[in-house]
Structures are given as C-alpha cells and as structure tokens.
Amino acid sequence: MNTDPLVAVSRAAILRAAESPRIRRVVRKHGMRAGASRFVAGETLEECLAVLAHLNADGLFANTTLLGEAVESPADAEAVVAEYETVISSLVQNELWANVALKLTHLGLGIDEELAYGNVERLVKHAAGLGTFIRIDMEQSVYVDATLRIYRALRQAGLDAVGIVLQAYLRRTAADFDSLVPLSPGLRIVKGAYLEPPALVLPTKADVDAEYTRLVERGIRSGLLIAVATHDERIIDHVKQWTTTNKVSRDRFEFQMLYGVRPALQRRLASEGYQVRVATPYGPDWYPYLMRRLAERPANVGFLLRNLIRS
Question: Is 16 assigned a catalytic role?
C-alpha cells in the first residue's frame, strides 16, 4: 500500500501485534487514559452521545459504531442488535446529525449468513421507521461477497435506508462497483485498512490513490450519493476542484473522516460549506480499532507509548 518500505513493514508489524494477548492486556488496562480516547468516543453510549453533540455544535455530521467484531454465538449477536436499536433510537431522540455504521461480523456473519441478514434487516427496518439510515461497513476480503449479497438482498426487499462501502485497494472493487450501480447505492469509498494477501490488492499507494479518485468520479457521474472517506488532502483537494469544475452540487457528496484524525481539516472543510461526517465509534471493545488506526499512521505509536509510560 505505502511506497515507503519502512512504513509498510511498521504497518504490518502493528497489525500482527494487535493479536498479541500480552500487548492487548497492557493497552486495554491503560489505553483510554494514555490516548485511545483521541480516537474513541468513550466506552458507553452516554459518553458517545456527548461527543456527537459536540461535533454537531461545530457544524459536523457524524456516524457512530459500537466497536466489536466476530461474535461467537447467536446470543452475542442478539445483544449487539439490541444495543444498536437503543443507539438508533437515542440518535433520533436527541436530534443528532448522526447515523449508525456497523459490521456484519458483529451481527453474526462469521456464524451464519442468514443470521446476519436477519439481524441487519431488523436494524434497517428500525432505522427506516425513525427516518434515519444505516451504513454497512466493508471488512476483510473473505467477507466481501457475503456482505454484498446481504446488501443486495436488503435492497431487493425494498429496504432503501441502507448504504454500503467499497475499498479501493482491492483489485476486485471496480467490478463490484459496476455491479452495484443499478441499485443506486449510497456509497462510501475508502482506501482499505486490512492486511490482505498481496495478490488481492493493488501494488502501490499511487495505484490505490488513482483507483480511489476514479471510483469517486465514476460514482458521482453515475448519479450516486458518494461519501469521500479519506484524510488524504491531495485527494480532498482534487475532489473539491473536480466537483467545482463539473458543477457538481455539494449535496451529491460529502467528506468523511475518523474521529481524532485531522480535526482541524474537518472543521475547515465544514466552514467552506462542505458536508463533513465524522466516524465516531464507542464501546469497551476498542482495542482492535485502535491498533488499525495506529497501523494507518505508525508515528502515532510513539504518542501512545509515551502516554502509556506516564500512566
């Protein structure tokens, strides 16, 4: 992904370290105090709602995710669904500019595809009944086919309050994009953050960046609502210039960024009149999410380590 081999090695090492029980114990014990709260909006829904309200007050939209992946039983998945129903209702009751984004493995996809479909269908219907929207996140490549099948089945069932994500670094994504266009999906484009086999991904950062901008432009030209999810200012500037040149209304796309990553840029874009949505996750199972954020920017490891030593 990154043309700098040292950065690529660091990223891979961090993602592998995320599997270490010893590192997990240390970071879980001290991490929120040591800096994880920079990227995670607390461990409880109440803490998250306060952060979302603050973002809205600054002119920023948001989505929120209950952190966690790969539940082990249908009962665990049911508990997640119940929590998400509470989250969706709370966002609406508090009149927050926010929606839910979720992972299908958290709803039981690793156990049974029909189980995951039933659970996400229940949540999409709940959201639609309250006038809001759910985004299905994309996960590792082994789940892409099942995720797309579930999304298509939801849309074929007449459920429209649901969007999907495509990852620009996967070689297959251009074909997946073509297959989705007839459904007019609300589509978020990301670069991709999982450690995948080299044969499945584009070879260089330049290749990924070029594919990313192609997907954004094709999506907008196809009449889709596009979420441009990146912190790469070169790509952001390109999208701003391209949409201005092509007279694209600003309600046809939005920028999306992660909570705690480039907050000044988020606020600047909002002040320029662009819609900016901040991905603002919460929950006690924040460790894997934190490690992926560190892998995306290995320089942040030093920040966390210094704070761990102080704590």
Answer: no
